[in-house]
Amino acid sequence: MSQQTTIRKLAALVNTPVEKLLEQLAEAGMKFSSPDQVVTSTEKVKLLGFLRRTHGKSEKAVEDAVSPKKITLNRSRKQELTVGGGKNRQTVDVVVRKKVTLVPPSGKGDGIDPASGLSREEAERAEILRKLEESRQRNLSEQQRLAEDDKRRADEAAERKRQEDAEADRLRKEAAAAAATVTGDAAPAVRRATHGHGQPAKPAAPARDDRAGQKAKAHRGSHAMVAGVEDDDSTARFAGQLHLSAADRARRSTARGRPKPRRNVEQSRGGSGGPHGFERPTAPVVREIAVGEAITVADLAQKLALKGGDVVKALFKMGVMATITQTIDHDTAVLVVEELGHKAVRADSDDAESELVAHVAEVQGEQATRPPVVTIMGHVDHGKTSLLDYIRTTKVATGEAGGITQHIGAYHVETPKGVISFLDTPGHAAFTSMRARGAKLTDIVVLVVAADDGVMPQTVEAVQHARAAKVPLIVAINKIDKSTADPNRIKNELLEHQVVAEDFGGETQMVELSAKTGMGVDDLLDAISLQAEVLELRAVQDGRATGTVIESSLDKGRGPVATVLVQQGRLNRGDYLVCGVQYGRVRALFDENGQAVDGAGPSIPVQVLGLSGVPDAGDDFVVVDDERLAKDVAQQREAKRRETRLVQAAGNRMEDIMAQMGQAEQQLSLNLVVKADVQGSVEALKQALTALSNDQIRINIIVSGVGGITESDANAAATAKATIIGFNVRADASARRVVETNGLDLRYFSIIYDVIDQVKQVASGILGMEIREEIIGIAEVRDVFRSSKFGAVAGCMVIEGVVKRSKPIRVLRDNTVVFEGELESLRRFKENVDEVRVHTECGIGVKAYNDVKAGDQIECFERIEVQRTL
Ligand SMILES: Nc1nc2c(ncn2[C@@H]2O[C@H](COP(=O)(O)OP(=O)(O)OP(=O)(O)O)[C@@H](O)[C@H]2O)c(=O)[nH]1
């Protein structure tokens, strides 16, 4: 603290007696008791102020003097001076004036200015204050400069704008004059309004009209605005916002007052113009939109290059309520396209298709004789399957007779008189549609009629189909081994249907045979060959193949599998093909015996692997040169099919609404979701079930397809309040949840008759008891053990309900029934048990089925009698 100033030191410094200084300090309001007390700089300043005041200066001025760079103080001191000596000795009063200049110490000193007594900190503070002041001044001038730049730019922009507006106005006037419109009246009106606002026209732009003047004014920014309420407001509003460009200000100004015009102006000018800016709209872009049978709002919006919401709005204005995902029909789409100022054209989706046709037409090669394709038709139980089986087992080289199938298969046999291909159509009424389609593929129909039964309804139907398809008929009078067989009766009965046997003078070959004993079967094959010769069946042997899908399914391991009949050319492994809405490259080909083959010629059925999806039975296939064309055609077809489906769905909805409104004349609707294991069954069920519609009830199949029942199927059923029919397929877990949540009617079938019977009874209003199957438990196969004693035993976990040994079971693979039968054994830890409950492990042996695999499900069911309801 040696650096600090005591009163004594200060007194010595200012050359004042200590007592006086103490007095002065006391007068200045600072009491000190001892001269050795420290005087702070504040106290010094206060004392200084006091002393100055006593000299007539304000304390403030003194205090202010602290911050300036230097302070000058004048002090005077009286002294007596003795001059001369002796008698001449005189005493003279002398006033010594002393000028003291206080300068803050520069650089590092000892911390105290020896003259002023100010500390170094104080000096530094003063220096900082000075620098701050300098910087403030600099900032201020920089801001002023920027503001001036801004103002200049805004002025320039406003000037440019004014010129543009004037030009636009001039053009508009010219156009208006040319069109002899009433523009002339409008200008004075605007002028009147302008004057009414108290805004004189700017003399700076005499060439422009008042409207232009008004516009320009808005663009010039606040600094250039003349008196007026709006202008004042703007000026006030943008005070202190000098950084805003004139256009920004104008935009903001309008945003407050008139949002609508601004929006339009911005739209037409891309947001760069002012609020009053108006330009003649540039020519709108008129798009040509291809619209098919139906289109979703989203797709349409995309084609129009608009937001989905804009199209929804446009539709709404037209009175059509549609969401973005909804589909609108062709007419509505055309209307909305035109409403939005574009042009609608009908979608021509046949581009790729015509390319395909041209492509196919290229390969017209040498034709050669081809084998006949035969379809066997006939009434139930007249022996179609037996006949096919007999031919297959005896005539197919590596004959491997399978069980009776319910879908169309195909195979070819080699007889001494040549190859014959058979389409395997099961004898069931439900397959009418397949038969009809089969007949189109078919060269010859073999009509099986049981000699002990006679002509039945389906016999007649088959005759009609063959006739409609202009396919010759050969009648196989079956079961002649039976004692009750009466072939002549058959021939006579057929006469009634204009089917005249050769021995009756007609043209139809009739062969008596027994599918059981094989008697007469060769005669039938001979008859077929003869008929084929008469028909002179020919086809291109080589070149790109075309043909038709007979059957299709989805195989978990192999993917989509299609059985196709080659009709022209040769289908080879590695070929690219379009198949209905699917496409792909032939990965593998298999014949009817499951043998891999390299290719198949005309009239030969073959299984194809490698397609992108499961085609429908009846779809045609065409081999093309490259994948691109295959893909294009398939996608175009898919789009077209989707459009058609959407139209149908929209139609259904309309009808449903009508029904609700009571305009459907009390006709009830039964909606069905039909899923089956193979495409043939789907087709057959669809055909048969929809045919059951009558005056009272209309049967709609809302969803149909191959494979297990999925969540989306169940959701569709829930939406349409439909009954779900699973034919040899099951619902997966998520679908079952939807079924349970919505209380849907889910029914499983394994016999087509039962489906038709149930629906028919519902349709005809017969309400009685019905036998229904109820699944009581499901066990999942975790592992399979094989033992010589028990055969294959499935190590299972019961995942639902209870599995009972006495109840029938089905084995499911990928939700599709692969076996139906009984349990051989049901065990818990080597113990035979009657039932096993949920979450319990067990060993299951299935009677007469050794092909159980891990991952399969074994469902246990019972048949119960329930009251039928509509
Ligand atoms: N005695 C005798 N029985 C025959 C003959 N052909 C078929 N059957 C029997 O007639 C019954 C029906 O024969 P299927 O071959 O299943 O008849 P289907 O026309 O294929 O019948 P669906 O497939 O149900 O339409 C079977 O019990 C056969 O054993 C035959 O030539 N002689």
Automatic annotation (TrEMBL):
Its main location: cytoplasm. It holds the Pfam family IF2_N. PROSITE patterns: G_TR_2. PANTHER family: TR-TYPE G DOMAIN-CONTAINING PROTEIN (PTHR43381:SF5), TRANSLATION INITIATION FACTOR IF-2-RELATED (PTHR43381). One of its GO terms (molecular function) is translation initiation factor activity. GO terms for cellular component: cytosol. InterPro entries: DNA-bd_dom_put_sf, EF-G-like_DII, EFTu-like_2, IF2_II, IF2_N, P-loop_NTPase, Small_GTP-bd, T_Tr_GTP-bd_dom. One of the essential components for the initiation of protein synthesis. Protects formylmethionyl-tRNA from spontaneous hydrolysis and promotes its binding to the 30S ribosomal subunits. Also involved in the hydrolysis of GTP during the formation of the 70S ribosomal complex. The lineage of its organism: Bacteria, Pseudomonadati, Pseudomonadota, Gammaproteobacteria, Lysobacterales. Residues 252-262 have a biased composition (Basic residues). The keyword Cytoplasm applies. Residues 102-232, 245-281 are annotated as: Disordered. Keywords: Cytoplasm, GTP-binding, Initiation factor, Nucleotide-binding, Protein biosynthesis. This is Translation initiation factor IF-2. CDD domains: IF2_eIF5B, IF2_mtIF2_II, mtIF2_IVc. It is found in: Cytoplasm. Residues 372-520 are annotated as: G-domain. It comes from the Bacteria.
